[in-house]
Amino acid sequence: MSRRAAIKGLTAVAAGMGSGLFSQSAAVAAPGVLPETLNHTRTFGVGVRSVPVTSTVPTHLSVSGSAGRLRTRTAKGWGPWEPLSGCAGGDRQGQYDAAALVAMPSDTVEYQLDLPESARVSEMNVVNGRAIGTLSSPGGRVLIGSAERDCNYYSRKAWGADENLRFRENGEERYPLAYFPVQTITVHHSAMKASADVMADIRAIYYDHTITLDYGDIGYHLLIDSSGNVYEGRYSGVDPTPVFGGPTANDRPQMANGAHVGGFNAGNVGICVLGDFTSTVPTPQARRSLVLVLSALTEVCGLDPKGRTNYINPISGSTKSVDTISGHRDWLATECPGNAFYPFLAEIREEIARSR
């Protein structure tokens, strides 16, 4: 079967513009089943807009520009207004697209947006679509290059990446693979309050990055949840391990180019800790897994966890001097990975260095 034939029937979802997507019958996918992502895109102007939910409740909203505020109404009444926030990423040089991604209460009957500027709103449902595949089981260890670490690991097939989304209708890959030696590692937060279904949150990030923001794939190489589970992000090739692929360079593995820091991606591994750490910090379990993953990456890539890197983008020639283990805000004007979390990166660097 051709790639075009394989993705036939998913085109309307990938386009994200069909007004009738949420009219499909809703039936929560059985455990171990991958549901098709449903999406309906709207454009709203400045001001307050009330949107009743008339059929399948969106599991997540993506609001372009990441400015303004949102509140939802359930049978209990209106919840509080919450600020919208997101961080800029992008797969192309100089692209700094941003969107706020919000997990919606499952019993939402209406939502309101208060927008300071026009915005595109994607209503996603990553739970109620028809079954399009099965999920694999997670593993108890993650292999990063030649370094193994003891933490629960979910491959793309385990959390439910619909690989068809990475391809256009004509079969072309939206974000073709390219490999580069690792120069630096950047830590992010998702800036989204996690829902009770972590894999649904990751599928929403995946769809948002791949289709809504047109990055072509999920931007991060690895993601970590509050329980310390590690998830494979950016597709890196047919091998079963994350981050790396292609030929080695000077006996070091090369990373698949991601889309997490607009203009500074090539040679820059992106790790996202799920949650909003503006005023709170990651759980001890998440912190432990972050340290394990960072120690493995610095080990196999020959990086000094306490060092500085004079980064040179091998595609554009853009340069930046950053800590070898940096935060997103070290690259661009953003609060990521959160005001409460960012100061702890120095402590994490020291811990990794001491463990060697």
SSE layout:
Blueprint: H1 3-7, H2 11-15, E1 33-35, E2 38-44, E3 47-52, E4 60-64, E5 69-74, E6 77-78, E7 82-83, E8 99-103, E9 110-115, E10 119-125, E11 131-134, E12 142-144, E13 147-149, E14 153-154, H3 156-159, E15 179-181, E16 184-189, H4 198-212, E17 222-224, E18 230-232, E19 254-256, E20 268-273, H5 284-301, E21 308-312, E22 319-323, E23 325-327, H6 345-354
Parallel strand pairs: 14-18, 16-20, 16-23, 17-20
Antiparallel strand pairs: 1-11, 2-10, 3-9, 4-8, 4-10, 5-6, 5-7, 5-9, 12-13, 15-19, 17-18, 21-22
Main beta-sheet strand count, sense and barrel state:
6 strands, mixed
Uncertain segments are 1-21, 23-27
SSE arrangement, N to C: HHEEEEEEEEEEEEEEHEEHEEEEHEEEH
Integer count of domains: 2
CA distance, first residue to last residue: 50 Å
SS-derived structural category: alpha+beta
Work out the radius of gyration.
Answer: 20 Å
Protein name: Peptidoglycan recognition protein family domain-containing protein
Pfam families: Amidase_2 (PF01510)
Signal peptide: 1-29
Keywords: Signal
Descriptive account of the structure:
The protein is α+β, with helices and mostly antiparallel strands. It has 2 domains: 123 residues, Jelly Rolls (Sandwich); 220 residues, 3-Layer(aba) Sandwich (Lysozyme-like). The protein is built from 6 helices and 23 strands. The strands form 7 sheets. Strands 14-18-17-20-16-23 form a 6-stranded mixed β-sheet. Strands 3, 5, 6, 7 and 9 form a 5-stranded antiparallel β-sheet that branches. Strands 2-10-4-8 form a 4-stranded antiparallel β-sheet, covered by helices on one side. Strand 17 and strand 18 form a beta hairpin. It is globular. 47% of the residues are buried. Belongs to the N-acetylmuramoyl-L-alanine amidase 2 family. Keywords: Signal. This is Peptidoglycan recognition protein family domain-containing protein.
